[in-house]
Known about the structure:
By secondary structure, the protein is α/β, with parallel strands linked by helices. Among the domains are: 88-226, Rossmann fold; 506-624, 2-Layer Sandwich (GMP Synthetase, Chain A, domain 3), CATH 3.30.300. Helix content is 31%, strand content 24%. The strands form ten sheets. The protein has a seven-stranded mixed β-sheet with strand order 5-4-17-16-18-19-20, with helices on both faces. β14 (233-239) and β15 form a beta hairpin. α3 runs antiparallel to α4 (87-103). The relative contact order is 0.10. The chain binds coenzyme A and adenosine monophosphate. The site of adenosine monophosphate has 19 residues, from β25 and β26.
Amino acid sequence: MTYSEVYAQWQADPEGFWMDAAGAISWDRAPTRALSDLGEGLYEWFADARVNTCYNAVDRHVEAGRGEQAAIIYDSPVTHTKREISFVELRNRVATLAGALRAKGVEKGDRVIIYMPMVPEALEAMLACARIGAVHSVVFGGFAASELAVRIDDATPKAIIAASCGIEPGRIVHYKPLLDGAIEQASHKPDFCVILQREQEVAELIEGRDVNWHGFQYGVEPADCLPVEGNHPAYILYTSGTTGQPKGVIRHTAGQLVALNWSMKNIYNVDPGDVFWAASDVGWVVGHSYIAYGPLIHGNTTIVFEGKPVGTPDAGTFWRVMAEHKVKTFFTAPTAFRAVKREDPEGDFVKKYDLSHLGQVFLAGERADPDTIVWAQEQLGVPVIDHWWQTETGWSIAANPLGIEALPVKLGSPAVPMPGYEVHILDEGGHPVSAGELGAIAIKLPLPPGTLPTLWQAGDRFRTSYLTAFPGYYETGDAGMMDEDGYLYIMARTDDVINVAGHRLSTGAMEEVLSGHPDVAECAVIGVADSLKGQMPLGFLCLNAGCNRPHSEIVTEVVKRVREKIGPVAAFKLACVVDRLPKTRSGKILRATMVSIADGSSWKMPATIDDPAILDEIKTALQELGYAS
Ligand code: COA
Ligand code: AMP
């Protein structure tokens, strides 16, 4: 079948389409119906089924004779380690870990925070939670203690599973002090913490609270897979929104199983047994869907890569891993390819490796600029596919579904909507615009299986963030257009979210941190274009009257403050002091205009601006930082 036929089949009978896809999942009790309409824009998929995620990701492959196949390949250039874990080993390890968690009181529905670097134990911890119906929430290692504390208070975990340290090029990330600091800051206290002691750093354990990963598993009875309801939360993953309070995206068990399993062949074009590699981090949605769950559910080998595209040790690392482990489909963020291209524009490293197993490459997480796509196509000689999705959706809204049909690639477009997604471009009044015209990108409800049903303990926020702007639609927060062939173009966010090196960050959260500085009266943070990271945050500070401290000192302090409060991943390094911020007459800061000035793109004087002269001051300040040329 062609893509158009598959999409038409879904349109003709959406529920039948997903019931068919559900046939590939091993149910304890198969769903009798696909969709439940709960009213007010809320929906659930396969709610009356009973199923276990870990069984589908691990045990069933052992039972089907894949026990000896590698489930996880751990390749860590930063520790010079390579290790394979077969499906049977993974089952045994996960069953024991799950048994140990249960023995310490973790039960179905309890939350468990996982704060770990890219080691296989991170996936094992996720699967162990799934095995006993606990709800995990993985927190990215590049976040600071206060961000972890916010998540502890929101998820109220019974346990936290962490590693003693992470390894970034040139420095050890001391996870344990960050964890201890976060627990101290949080009002909620977990019953216990499990610490994986790594060779690179042995952390001090707090007696009575911390247990050692190996020690606490000793002699416990392994746990069986506990079937849970189809609408049981599999996990909570926090993502950036408009404010400093992150949004707890929930994923339901059955929908995730069905959607991710469907995507592996139809979008990513892999068959069970093939090696699939997503070079991301378990702390992001890509890591949840395509390092952990998708490949394992589908019987693929997944790679846990602990390294960077460059510098670990060189710009050939990606190609080495692909060649050595016979990767068939590779998934990364465009920024990673830009980093490689900057160091090896001619692709000298590519030539050193046998990439004959590589079938295709997928890019997501930020806009894929045509130069990067063309460079990758030329170097690798395989299709390089941009696809668009979000933490909220858990899998592609738009893609080029190579397992169905390789559609023509249009540079700058993540191609076409996937079955399950009816995508519309709307004007401010919620009316569809014509092909080629810009508007807000919205998805007709219901969203397909595997997408968020709501936000963790924030149903009202779910409605106001996503459902109220355009009744009957999910508001993606992205703006863009659709051409006459139905290809989408994603142009910008419509909110305060920016994308730095494929990492989703909130400028609102950074503004909250800057405002907390005693000398700052008012501030604004914008995302300016960056040739490597896509965007970089840049802060404008207005100081309190009478503050005559050197500006450079204050800038240094706020940079440090963002690193301490949000984390190194914010990459907040640019800030300047200005007298005033440009605003509308009603007092709204004109951030979009400042972005256009910084990027040197064309812009119109906003009709509602209070005092146009301020823009000259902003331009001068930006020029001093090397922008607005
Ligand atoms: N734990 C602790 N710190 C982390 C971290 C982690 N897991 N991941 C990143 N950081 C730190 C980095 O060390 C860096 O710190 P520094 O300011 O001391 O240098 C900071 O956070 C910013 O990281 P990043 O934006 O990733 O830049 P980088 O300089 O480390 O790497 C690239 C640059 C191009 C290699 C990088 O952009 C890259 O490949 N990113 C991965 C893209 C990706 O996988 N995105 C996920 C969505 S698919
Ligand atoms: P995250 O939730 O971290 O996956 O970030 C989602 C956001 O990243 C989207 O809403 C987009 O703004 C952006 N994004 C992701 N993929 C793409 C893409 N292929 N093209 C353009 N923007 C993208």
